Amino acid sequence: KIIFMGKIWYTPSESLITSNFLLINKEKILEKFDLIDHENFWSNNKDNQKIEILYKKYRIIKTYLREQIIININKNFKNNFDIYGEDKSNTGVIFKKPVYNTNAIKNIYEGNICIDTGPVPGSMSLHPRSLTILESNGLLIQAKQNDSLKIWDNLNEKIIFNDIESLLAKIDLLLTDQKMFNDYLDMIYEKFKNSEYKNYETLKENLRL
What we know:
Blueprint: E1 2-5, H1 19-31, H2 39-42, H3 51-77, E2 81-84, H4 102-109, E3 113-116, H5 128-135, E4 139-143, H6 148-152, H7 156-159, E5 160-161, H8 164-176, H9 178-192, H10 200-207
């Protein structure tokens, strides 16, 4: 199974980012997820020099990107994709009810392909959702973040993606190649077994290592 937990709706603000702006840039950001983390993406508007306005705009477009990634995964893998959260923007995606119990969340993530588009407020690899996935023995598949190469090193090309086509292709492969799935989990364990970021004794027990 493919799992995503979180919200994909955003509060539109025509005074900050128009719907037309989002539509015009949709293909660009799907072809390069981290485009919105580059200064030149925002350099055409003098209002973007004001950090408080730029931050509000960033949150809107980051959530819009998340929405588009989830819509595309759902379009291609609808029968294998479980999405937990709320849909307040009527995307047509079928959501399961949000889950808040920690043990229940870990049971859902365990042994599955777990999608993380990164935190909406910024760009970082290790944050509550991704850490929960790791601790749950789920296979993290993540959109590229500013620190991806630093955090993931040799795993970067295996579980980190910066465009929709390569992301969909890797999901398709992982759904059918159990050995690759297991190998990636083992590599993540080796990468973080002595890490301060998570309780790898729990993961070690889950993996029966």
